[in-house]
Amino acid sequence: MAKRTGLGKGLDALIPAGETKPSGGGSGVTQVAVDLIQRNPRQPREKFDIEELENLAASIREHGVIQPLIVSPGKNGIYILIAGERRLQASRKAGLKTVPVVIRSATDQQLLELALIENVQRADLNAIEEAEAYQHLAKEFKMSHEKIAERVGKNRSTVANTIRLLDASASVKQALVDGRITEGHARAMLTLSAKAQESLLNQVVNLDLSVRQTEALAGKYSGKKPVSAKKTGRSPNVNDVERRISSSLGTKVALKHGKKGGTVTIYYYSDEELDSLLEKLT
After folding, report:
1. What is the pLDDT of residue 234?
2. 145 with 163: CB under 8 angstroms?
3. Residues 160/161/164/169 CA torsion (nearest 10 deg)
4. 13 in the same domain as 112
5. Three-state DSSP state, 257
6. In what order do the strands lie in the sheet containing 37-38?
7. What is the value of pTM for the model shown?
8. What is the extent of the structural domain holding 17?
9. How are beta strands 69-73 and 261-266 bridged, if at all?
10. First to last CA, the chain
């Protein structure tokens, strides 16, 4: 059997190889007319780099499509694209009439999961597209953040923090998509009102502020008093313990340690995260 490439074990874990439906040839790869392939309605990626598509189209004209697309049977002879959106668009630009595909059955949930896995592995999604895809999996398909993280090969805290970006104001989200700020900048503003986020965003962009500077200003906007340098100085051992607890629980942890004891504050950002923490702690 021909070796599969592209989505790696993520695809096989969701749709076992036994569900492949070749329509000719022993390899499971067949030719399908590009006009019969529809875009995955669950595709989280909205924009594609025009120059990249043109370069890929030029390569396809010369060498053909090296890696087959993956499609799912639809109605009336139509196929739904699971993986290979860029290859499909480039093939159309190259003037191809047919493309090589592997046909697999997929549910709506699998269509979203597989499109998400492919894009995440290729780092094709911007942060907001990725967050919206995670949120669809969580809300529509009742998947926990831990299960989503397992599917896409990321830490649960990374998934949770990415979803939190959807709470940012419209302008902050657009600035993040445009690359004018980073995810760290956006997260620093999440505790503020939409109006305050807009004001702080202007300062961040115009003054080219770092994430740390943004966090400090966000504290001022929310009325928090800055902590003195003397108070922030902590033993490296305390910092190490805090990092170890945070890594073990997969979420933000704040440790305050004194001569007579201290406190550990564990942060969570959704009911799913709270349930996950309770399972680990009980």
Report:
1. 65
2. yes
3. -160
4. yes
5. strand
6. 29-33, 98-103, 69-73, 79-83, 37-38
7. 0.56
8. 9-121
9. unpaired
10. 47
Lowest model confidence (mean pLDDT) among 63-67, 165-169, 272-276: 272-276
Q: 42 falls in which pLDDT band (50, 70, 90)? A: low
Q: Are 103 and 81 in contact (CB under 8 A)?
A: no
State the Cα–Cα distance between residues 262 and 249, nearest whole angstrom: 19
Choose one of 203, 221, 239: the last residue of a domain. 221
| C-beta separation of 133 from 44 below 8 A | yes
20 and 116 assigned to the same domain: yes
Q: What are phi and psi of 101, to 5 degrees?
A: -140, 155
262 and 239 inside one domain: yes
What percent of the chain clears pLDDT 70, i.e. is strictly above it?
78
Active site amino acids: 85
Considering the domain architecture, whether residues 217 and 243 belong to the same structural domain is answered as no
Q: Which of 112-116, 162-166, 213-217, 255-259 has the lowest mean pLDDT?
A: 112-116
DSSP conformation class of 104: B
Q: How far is CA 75 from each of CA 30, 79, 103, rounded to the nearest angstrom?
A: 18, 8, 14
Residues in Cβ contact with 19 at an 8 Å cutoff, skipping those fewer than 6 apart: 104, 105
For residue 17, tell me if it sits in a domain.
yes
The pLDDT of residue 79 is 92
pLDDT digits (tens, 9 = 90+) for 130-142: 888 888 888 877 8
* Residue that has been written with the tokens 């004209």 in this structure: 61
pLDDT digits (tens, 9 = 90+) for 1-12: 333 333 333 444
